[in-house]
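Example 3.2
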Amino acid sequence: MAEVRAGVDDVDAQLVQLLARRFGYMEAAARIKRDRDTVRDEVRKAQVIANARKAALDLRIPQDVIADMWETLVEGSIAYEYGRWDALRG
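Structure, written as tokens:
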């Protein structure tokens, strides 16, 4: 069991690293977007979640769980981008 837990901890650390990279892109988007109203893009949000759902299907992992996680991730990313957009222009 210790090896399994160590493996999970390792994967979690890698996920956090990847999320840091993803949030770096949110930072870049906040710099690029000229209008605050363009931060939230429901069409793009739906596309990102659909992409994650498809990847989950391909990997035979629970699509609904992944879609729920991505909903939270995307909403958190949007909130972060709003914060950065405001900070860069405030």
